[in-house]
Amino acid sequence: MATRSAARLAAIIRILRLALCATVVHLFSAPTILAQDARHLIVRLESEQTIRQIAERYLDDANLWPEILQASGLNSITQLRPGITLRIPANEISTANKALVDALLQIQTANLAGAQLFAPLNIGKAISLHDEALTKRVQRDWARTRGLATDSFSEATVALEKSQALRDKAAEALVTDRQGNVEGQRPQDLAWRNLQIQTILIEEEKVRTLSDSTAQITFRDASRLRLSANSNAVIQRMRYDPLKRTEEAKVTLVEGDFYALLTEKNTRTSFNVDVPRVNATIDSGSFWVSQDTTGAKFANYDDGLVEVTALGKTVALNRNEGTVVTPGASPRDKLAVLEAPALAAPSNETTVYVRRPQLSWTAVVSASGYWIEIAADQGFGRMVLSKFGLDQPNFLPAELAAGEYFWRVAALDNLGLPGARSSTWRFKITVDTTPPYLSVTAPERGVILRDPTVRVTGESEPGAAVTVQGRPVEVRADGHFETTITAAPGMNTVSVIATDPAGNESRHERNFEFMPDRQSVVAFDPSILTIGPRHFLTAEDVISIGGTTTPNAQIRIQTAAGSVRASAATDSGGRFRVNVPLQAAEERLAITVAAPSGFTTTESFAVSVDKTPPDIVLDEIPVRLTAEPRFLLKGRTEPGAKLTLNGREIVNRNGRFDETTQLATGDNVIELVAADAAGNVRVEKWTVKLDRDPPALVGARLTPRTVGGRPTLSIEVEAEDASGLAKIAPFKVAAGAQNFSGFLRYNRAAKRYEGTLVVPATLVALAALREVELQDDAGNKKTFEIR
């Protein structure tokens, strides 16, 4: 391709020279031209002049001398002599050459407009025709050369027009970040629509942010524009040239404010900002614009200019300069914006352990407020929070999620212009509720020491603060720490606390005994059940006694009479374990420790055997059937016994319990378990049925009868209930203006209530059963009115 382009360039230079031939002939060869017509120049061959010289002079190519012979009607150079007239086809050749030049220039113009990208078929055909025309020129076919060159010019023209049309394309922008409520409205839309991230914006589209909301608009060249809260803007124009990869944008700010960060100048979007009655031409890569009822405000933070024009006056803003345009006025003279605040806390590149870190910075002289921005990325493309108009040099944000954050601050002057932004600091929020690792390796738990200087060692997390007995201890890079304390005679407790940077705390306490003399002391295993100091409890005929004492010592368990029940030896750590058979419900025994030195120490202890499970005695036997959902269980048991009611532990108040549980409809199993310290268990179970449904009335009849010559009424009532019916049922009978009442008795065989009522004979015909009250065995009652 390079060789072909070089050849074409050489050809065009040569053709240009030929195209100028006619002009050169007229300027410098006039004395020898005898005549000319539409196609030829007629010249005379001078003495000492060759036909090659004439071809070189008039056709700019000595090798074209055969063309002159042919046009002059000569067959051979032998026919040439001084003074002969020659016909030179200069016009025909120059016309063909000019067509070649025009076609090649049009091809190059189309290529510069991007024809290889936008019209490859047309420009390819134009080049092919031009190459064919060059071939015809070499063949001296001037008419065909001119025709092909003309066709090549036409195809190149089509390619140029297509390229120019496609290069002026409507561009698009994206909503690349949003916080809160962001809405858009295209020219054809009747209502606003919600804009999500990655929504495409087009020319003449309106974008607005509502309260506590922000939106970032990103153009094709990565230039960004961030609308603050309560802002309304219109993207008036977005044009993109795919060949040069340049973009043109024009934004109208109706109200609110936005901050723009454009790309580098060589790839930057051509950016214009319009506000009512004000125009701004932007060459800056970083600027801020605001518009409200008080007017328009501009601030520039880049070396490129921001030119603000209103009422015929233009103010050019350089770096860190601003201006204000009030309604009906020209721009004020530019003024310097406030300097950048210095960020203070939290420190840069630090980790904080609270969801709401207090952010602070140094106050700026003459500042009337501050603007803080917090983002999830260093370029502030993913805004988390933007607060404009803070009145103090500090801010407490709402809870932030765990993660990495970047923040910066600008001071606001009395005109509301933001000053230079501070440097960007980073902090990381880590939610840490886990206490730090902490282990204590010395002194050992329950150890008996002879030296008052006690070495305390352990390990924690690197970075954690460790205290021993309240005093700070240095923690090495590997987490280990070491210090010494002075023990007091007898039992000692060493307290070790580790606190991590998040404030989480781990605490270990280690007990040991300091014995300045050589006396052996037994530290019994705390897992052995006790009912008092050195008074052990078991439910078996054998008890396992263990603990620590002097290392490598001999252990004997003896009765008060001195007989040995069991023996064992301590290991190198002083630990021992021995099973001791028991012969009575309570025994007094002694443990004898014989140290390797021969020093012997004896300590007494007692053991009680308890094989009897604790009693459970209820104050009242639980009812089998009840209508009350709250079930009360009261009684007594052994003081200290652990009580559980249906798996839930209940309070044992010195042997008394009083607990209420909730019953479910139907059968309820009540299980009460009592366990004493020795592990003896007693279990009591009851089943209580909860029935809250009253009986159902099935039917009722009142029949007049004569008994012993007296008029009576026979009453029968049929009822049913799953729990059983009460023995009697009150009733009421109405007879005229009189009312009668009584009780029906339940006939279990007949499964109905029955009774008779004596009334005056005159009222028998008027009598009617009006009411009956039914009750079941659970106590549920219901009065039925009969009509």
Set out the fold topology.
Layout: H1 2-19, H2 21-28, E1 33-36, E2 41-44, H3 51-59, H4 65-71, E3 85-88, H5 90-112, H6 115-118, H7 120-138, H8 142-167, E4 169-170, E5 173-179, E6 182-185, E7 193-194, E8 200-201, E9 205-209, E10 214-218, E11 224-227, E12 232-241, E13 246-261, E14 270-275, E15 278-282, E16 286-292, E17 295-300, E18 306-310, E19 313-317, E20 321-325, E21 335-336, E22 343-345, E23 350-352, E24 359-361, E25 369-375, E26 383-390, E27 394-395, E28 403-412, E29 425-429, E30 438-442, E31 447-449, E32 453-460, E33 465-468, E34 471-473, E35 480-486, E36 490-499, E37 505-514, E38 523-524, E39 530-532, E40 535-538, E41 542-548, E42 554-559, E43 564-569, E44 575-581, E45 586-594, E46 600-609, E47 616-618, E48 625-626, E49 630-637, E50 642-645, E51 648-650, E52 656-662, E53 666-675, E54 681-690, E55 696-707, E56 710-720, E57 728-735, E58 738-747, E59 752-758, E60 767-775, E61 781-785
Parallel strand pairs: 13-14, 23-29, 31-37, 40-46, 48-54
Antiparallel strand pairs: 1-2, 2-3, 4-12, 5-8, 5-10, 6-7, 6-9, 9-12, 10-11, 11-13, 12-13, 13-16, 14-15, 15-18, 16-17, 17-20, 18-19, 20-21, 22-24, 24-27, 25-26, 25-28, 28-29, 30-32, 32-35, 33-34, 33-36, 36-37, 38-41, 39-40, 41-44, 42-43, 42-45, 45-46, 47-49, 49-52, 50-51, 50-53, 53-54, 55-56, ...
Helix pairs in contact: 1-5, 5-7, 5-8, 7-8
